[in-house]
Amino acid sequence: MSAVPPSRPAYHTASSQTEIEANLADIRQRIEAACQRAGRDPAEVRLLPVSKTVDESRIRMAYAAGCRLLGENKVQEAYGKWEQMADLTDLHWAVIGHLQTNKAKFVARFAQEFQALDNLRVAEALDRRLQEEGRSLDVFVQVNTSHEDSKFGLAPDQVLDFARALPAYSALKVRGLMTLALFSSDENHVRPCFVTLRTLRERLRQDAPQGADFAELSMGMSGDFEWAIEEGATTVRVGQAIFGSRALPDSYYWPEGASGEAARG
Ligand SMILES: *Cc1c(COP(=O)(O)O)cnc(C)c1O
After folding, report:
1. What is the pLDDT of residues 189-247, one digit of tens each?
2. Is 54 in the pocket of ligand 1 (CB under 6 A)?
3. How far is CA 157 from CA 161, 222, 246, in A?
């Protein structure tokens, strides 16, 4: 949709625990300021650090800096890190990227949270594997609020029916909705995505099936988390502003991204 990629801020690479701590402190301050502007309690907003492409040594620094839950968007990468850092028994993992049915077994084994649920075959595969593992999983339903073909997620008008089907999968603990906003530096283009997600939650609160609590709104990343908070985010997923710019092109993360470079920041 956005033909011209906005200029991308370069994030300095944090290569020590001190630098990671400083970035975390800075982001927490910005979260507080955004909450203040919106008349919200900062305790309502959870910061989910995103560690994709960040290697083990820097993840251990983040752990030392206090991080206990990290977001990863590729299952294989996340699973490998979980195995490498099994000694950090209280470090938990949130899978925030698209999942193929045949990889559900990995997520069922190690993840605390899965934020990109958008089809029932995956729900069913996850539930079956979780039952086998004797585990449960917090899930967020991903919604495509930017109407870009390149993005995963349900169309907003599909969410209600989808939500009604979820209580059948008892190992999935439904927490809320997740979205990636349009990638743009123009808040007039970005905020409507967040508003769409919030509006959907209000509808779900009236109509949602029993046992599905759609309280959470996971929205906002390094480039737009303050707008997301002003629009009601309860979880912001922040990677580059904590760890530094990623070396790999965004097409690595959104392989189907027709809009390529413009897909994400
Ligand atoms: C990478 C990623 C983020 C974080 O993006 P940053 O620009 O690093 O803050 C958030 N959500 C999802 C789904 C991601 O894949």
Report:
1. 999 999 999 999 999 988 866 767 899 999 999 999 999 999 999 999 999 999 999 97
2. no
3. 8, 28, 34
CATH number at residue 27: 3.20.20.10
Please, what sign has the CA dihedral across residues 113, 117, 123, 128?
A: negative
Q: Which structural domain range is residue 210 located in? A: 17-253
- Does the predicted model carry a pTM greater than 0.90? yes
Ligand 1 in reach of 115 Cβ (< 6 A) = no
Helices 75-84, 56-64: crossing angle, 10 deg rounding: 70
Please tell me the number of Cα atoms within 13 Å of 128 on its side-chain side: 11
Instruction: Give the other-Cβ count within 10 Å of 64's Cβ.
Output: 12
Query: Is 262 among the domain residues?
Result: no
How far is the centre of ligand 1, averaged over its atoms, from the C-alpha of 264 (Å)? 8
Tell me whether residue 60 is in a domain.
yes
